[in-house]
Amino acid sequence: MGSVEGMLAQMRKLLGTGENPPGSNRNAITKWYGFSGPWCDMTVSYAAAHSDNLSAVCGKYAYTVAHAQAFRSKGRWHYGLGGVRPGDIVFFDWSGSRSIGAIDHVGVVEAVHSNGTITTIEGNTSNLCQRRRRNSSTVVGYGRPAYGDAKPLPPNDGILRLGSTGPAVRTLQQNLNTVMKTTLVVDGDFGQATDEAVRAFQRKYGLAVDGQYGPSAAAVMKSALKGGTKPQVPAPRPPSAGKLAVDGAFGPATCAAMQRALNRHGAKLSVDGSFGPLTKKALQGYLKVAVDGAIGPNTVRALQKKVGVGVDGQWGPDTTRHLQQALNAGTF
């Protein structure tokens, strides 16, 4: 049986792992897993397998939804970030729905901070394995692996319901009084009156009416307090514009600069530094090759011709350096 420390050590060893070529989903992790595809959860599996923790994380997964469901089926799931610890496997939904069925990314918690944020190590984030600083805005929940030294999960599942008590219930009651104009006694006791108020809130905002105040309802409440009617989707924070380091590393800054250049040619991309399907297709459209979202030899050859480097169909550091030079010069 492995340990939290072993899992984190393996994740740290993977920092900087990328793709060859960029956008291909091909690297040592996907080769180990057995196919080329989005590799955020493959990274978790790889690190677990190489630290004697594969059974602790519920097995080998590439599909994040199935992985979260496995944690839940084993009683090792918690919604939100309450009680999260280093070594936990945290799952994200960029749309902010807080639904397991909508999960599309995963990472491993490396550190928990006093301001409510976490530091994670994530595979396939801007096509690299990198550290990220995250808050709760896009977190669905986390699974606690059965490490040999694992701590017990928090005593509740992160959902407020009839019978719940404590500060979180007081906050909910205050928010219901604000949004729904109720006159609940703010006593931290989720009784019948609070249950009825939650159900009224759920009916008003088109949520499942079950009296349980979970992540989906909390996301809508956050928006409602600001006058909205739907969960607010967090806007991406792109790397800042400016001269690129000509270092041959195709990271978020280079990708964001390329997205800005493609937008000048009419692409209308969200500048987030992530080499996702829309960016790949926009690049192919600009290069006048087949627009299929797969960065293969034909796309790379066209890119190499565009930036003036040797044409061999292999996207390596030299191709990226020439791309960086072209982006800096405004000729791309």
From TrEMBL:
<protein>
    <submittedName>
        <fullName>CHAP domain-containing protein</fullName>
    </submittedName>
</protein>
<dbReference type="InterPro" id="IPR038765">
    <property type="entry name" value="Papain-like_cys_pep_sf"/>
</dbReference>
<dbReference type="Pfam" id="PF01471">
    <property type="entry name" value="PG_binding_1"/>
</dbReference>
<dbReference type="InterPro" id="IPR007921">
    <property type="entry name" value="CHAP_dom"/>
</dbReference>
<dbReference type="Pfam" id="PF05257">
    <property type="entry name" value="CHAP"/>
</dbReference>
<dbReference type="InterPro" id="IPR036366">
    <property type="entry name" value="PGBDSf"/>
</dbReference>
<dbReference type="InterPro" id="IPR002477">
    <property type="entry name" value="Peptidoglycan-bd-like"/>
</dbReference>
<feature type="domain" description="Peptidase C51">
    <location>
        <begin position="32"/>
        <end position="124"/>
    </location>
</feature>
<dbReference type="InterPro" id="IPR036365">
    <property type="entry name" value="PGBD-like_sf"/>
</dbReference>
<feature type="domain" description="Peptidoglycan binding-like">
    <location>
        <begin position="165"/>
        <end position="221"/>
    </location>
</feature>
<feature type="domain" description="Peptidoglycan binding-like">
    <location>
        <begin position="257"/>
        <end position="303"/>
    </location>
</feature>
